[in-house]
Amino acid sequence: MKHIKIEEMGWAESRGLDVELAAKHGLVTEGKKIGFRYEFGGQTKFTKWRNQDKTGWHITPSGQPLQLFNVDCLSDYSVTPDQVQTPLIITEGELDAISCIQAGLPFVVSVPAGAGCSKSEGIIEAHNDKQFQYLWDAYDVIKNFKKVILFTDNDDAGLTLRNELAIRIDEKKCFYVPMPEGCKDANDILARHGVEALKKAIDEARPLVSDDIVGLFELPPMPKMPVILTGWEPLNEHCLLTRPEFMVITGEPGTGKSQFARALAFHLSFGVSKETFKSGNDVLRGMFFTLEDPASRLQRDSYQYMKNILGSTSDPKKQQRIREVISDRIKAIKPSDDVLSLDWAAERIEWAVTRHDCNYIVLDPWNEIEHDFGKQSETIYIGNAIRRLKRICSRLGVLLIVVAHPTKVDKKSGPVDLYSIAGSANWYNKADHGIVLSKPKWGENILKVDIQKSKDWETMGNPGAVYMRFSRDKKDFACIPPQEVEELKAAHGESE
Prior knowledge:
- The chain is of the alpha/beta class.
- The chain has two domains: 6-218, Dna Topoisomerase Vi A Subunit, Chain: A, domain 2 (3-Layer(aba) Sandwich), CATH 3.40.1360.10; 233-492, P-loop containing nucleotide triphosphate hydrolases (Rossmann fold, 3-Layer(aba) Sandwich), CATH 3.40.50.
- It has helices at 10-14, 19-24, 94-102, 133-137, 139-142, 156-169, 186-193, 195-203, 257-270, 295-310, 316-329, 342-356, 378-396, 425-430, 457-460, 482-492, and strands spanning 27-30, 33-40, 43-51, 58-60, 88-91, 108-110, 148-151, 174-176, 206-207, 245-251, 286-290, 330-333, 360-364, 399-403, 433-438, 446-454, 464-471, 476-479.
- It is elongated.
- The mean pLDDT is 88.
């Protein structure tokens, strides 16, 4: 057994740690490496080693199932009057856990692998939740705590870990610790401000789910949502996608709304060139409601698009591989029944995300859904329907792209906009992005893509328009430079 060497622990003292207490709770050293003993029932199961700069961690012996650090402290927990209100603290790292123990907290554990977790989607089942198996192994004790303080790092990865732990434990009894200025974790507070400051920070932990009325800056920090690029660089100024999101696409008949939605989906799932072909975590999987166009059109276009970016091939095995990649990344549902209700659509959105790992949904078109207004007016019904879909988007973390036809198009009503869709202002007011497509008279196969609604100009792009030209061979659109647009207008002697 390797033990702590005091002469090697100057760095630990500089972090405010009591070296003897740290050693008692599992800190060991070997040269410039530090380790943490993971014990269960008083026996060491494995030691987690890393360099002092927090790099290159590994466990010995290898292959051991991960568990919570300091999990033996939970064996001392019993539901007695003096312990009912004693919180459990879960930290992101072992040094943070030891820091909280030094502050006098009796029930402190750390996750074993830091904040390297992915955001969960859909239904969480304990027997399939491998990345949090260490939590489920101790769940029978954890569930008895009335208060659980999630003391993770104050960065996006730490906040994601905090939220994932809360989902599994019970958000209503979870608390978070507001960090003092310039501090990112528990050990940072101890090193910079001392043990009393750390005690104070823990004492001031706030509910993760508070009541409805809170101070504006008392809301828990949330991880930043990653921006999703459309794949059309000039469009990024006007349209930066996020998840969750509710996007609406409309336009006059024949403008290519479905074609544009398909091209956008291909960008999200495959990339835009051989060099940018997506793999691993970059891949977004989607599902299409093919309510109007035949599913064969989606098959044809996706295969043609893939051949364009990867290169045409006559090899049957490579052709089959392309089809397999497409089938993995894009699903489709072609309804066979006559009743396509909103309930039916909502259920299949849920299935697409929870059973098939879909990140975006294309509902094309909205008008093919059977809408039962009941005693509601159309406007009230549409408002309620969109709110329902947005709640699904938020809960599942999904991008929902809805293609909606305008109710009527004539010269008296003026150009089509988001207000032209049945339900009027609801489509404009509730959309995160609202896109209106139109075909100018001065160019063949040219599409005006007008981002008329962007919910947050600072993070989602400013409203504005770009012009694109459609390639039938590539099944994709390419943005037209502004100077070429002006030249085309001048050549035809027309304005829009």
